[in-house]
Amino acid sequence: MDAVETLNRTLFLILNATPATPHWLVVSGILIADYAILLVPAMLVALWLTGADERRALAVRACLAGLLALGVNQLIGLTWYHPRPFASATGHTFLAHVPDSSFPSDHVTLLSAVAFTFLYGGKRGIGLLAVFVDIAVAWARIFVGVHWPLDMIGAAIVAWSTYVVSSPLWRLGGMALTRALIALYRKVLAVPIELRWLRP
Hints:
Blueprint: H1 2-15, H2 23-35, H3 39-50, H4 53-79, H5 106-120, H6 124-143, H7 149-188, H8 190-194
């Protein structure tokens, strides 16, 4: 375990920004670390609004996979505390964060779950976009000093495992849930759908 922690700290110090890092790069890292996660709801909404029932089912599945993976993260955090870099006086921190458990990263868990769902669902374009954002966020949150590298590996493992474990449940009731949500969508947004502002 000591060897793993040593590797974790070494990789962190290689990737972590310092006071000598160019200001524009630090600002870019902060923006990516804080706001790139907003692309997740944007991608899900875009998939829902521009697609047929198959694409909407994929959006629902990605949303559920992400929420379930985040639930697993909460359980891990409740049972095992791993301090963030700034809580163990390691490196430099450029983003304010509560000193809760660092492992695994919620941001990267959510992005990874969505990316896995898109890729396994055959949507290569939006899946690769999610992977690109996922990698950028993983880098940024280490760069600004709020996560360790192994937090990102753990996040990807949690996301993939959750997707695999939940697959049988999706096969049992996923399409029924999607049809119910589509019916609700068509009822609640009937007026803009009739005006052709939205797809039915």
